[in-house]
Amino acid sequence: MSDSRNPFDSSDGDDRDNNPLANIPFRPKGARSTMASQRPPNKPAPVPSAKRLPKVKPSKLRIIGGDKRGRGVLYHGDRTTRPMKESLREALFNIVGPSIKGRVAWDLFSGTGILAIESFSRGAVFAVAVERSRTFAKTIRHSADAIEIAEDQVEVLMGDSFRVSPKRMVTVREEFLNTPWVAYFCPPYALWTEQKEDMFELIETTAKIAPPGSLIVTETDKFFDTETLPLGPWDVRPKGNMTLSFLETV
């Protein structure tokens, strides 16, 4: 960086928006659950799986800042997708502050598209939402269309982010020249361990292609060792059960 000033400081910053721990129902020691009592003897309990989780009621994620403030982005209710909580999203944009204006935004594991759409609402000149699910990608496009955001403003790129993002980054760099980026790495938390090498390689590739002065943002759970993140040094901000980390490219 060219000077010692922290590029992420914002006068609007507020670190009080920590996400509370989930409330865990108390069960007295020795008590058996209803499901356990109904299970046939010697039959093992089913292994929890995100794929088995029932859908929750579809809802709208509220855009909390910018031209589209108060408008909604559809969350389809599929629990294999983990939208960033509103309090954490607000903390993120408080830290990034007005520097989002004039940037190109990358929502690399998009899910609902909320980070790409909110970034455009707050002044990004262009945003790309990368989503491998065809169904989810269509939902993102529908959400953007519903609030009058065109395809040349927020692009929905369908495909595996590890494969399709670097190719698109090269062409976006050519199209927008030295316009700085903000790139969000907010995948399902399991990817930070199950595909750690792929995640780190994509971070390094993004930093290599991005114009100088771009921002890379990661969201991890509190158990992830942020000291293992590549490049650096990172500006690490714990937020309750989650951690936001920021890096400026040179």
Please identify which CATH superfamily we are dealing with: Vaccinia Virus protein VP39
Element string (H = helix, E = strand): HEEHEHEHEHEHHEEE
Calculate the terminal CA-CA distance, rounded to whole Å. 6 Å
Could you say how many structural domains there are in total?
1
Q: Report the count of strand segments.
A: 9
Write down the CATH topology.
Rossmann fold
By secondary-structure content and strand pairing, the structural class works out as alpha/beta
Please, how many helices?
7
**Overall spatial form:** globular
Largest sheet: number of strands, sense, barrel closure: 7 strands, mixed
Strand content: 15-25%
Q: Could you estimate the helical fraction of the residues in percent?
A: 25-40%
Strand order of the largest sheet: 5-4-3-6-7-9-8
Q: State the name of the first-level CATH class.
A: Alpha Beta
**Mean of pLDDT:** 83
Cα-atom radius of gyration: 20 Å
Unreliable runs, pLDDT <50, ≥5 residues?
Answer: 1-50
Which architecture per CATH? Answer: 3-Layer(aba) Sandwich
3D structure, described in words:
The structure is a single chain. The protein is α/β, with parallel strands linked by helices and 250 residues long. The chain has a single domain, classed as 3-Layer(aba) Sandwich (Rossmann fold), CATH 3.40.50.150. The chain contains 7 helices and 9 strands; from the N terminus they run αββαβαβαβαβααβββ. The protein has helices at residues 34-38, 86-96, 114-121, 134-146, 161-176, 191-194, 196-209; strands at residues 59-62, 72-75, 104-107, 126-131, 154-158, 181-185, 215-221, 235-239, 242-248. The strands form 2 sheets. Strands 5-4-3-6-7-9-8 form a 7-stranded mixed β-sheet, sandwiched between helices. The protein has a two-stranded antiparallel sheet with strand order 1-2. The protein is globular and about 40 Å long. Residues 1-50 have low confidence and may be disordered.
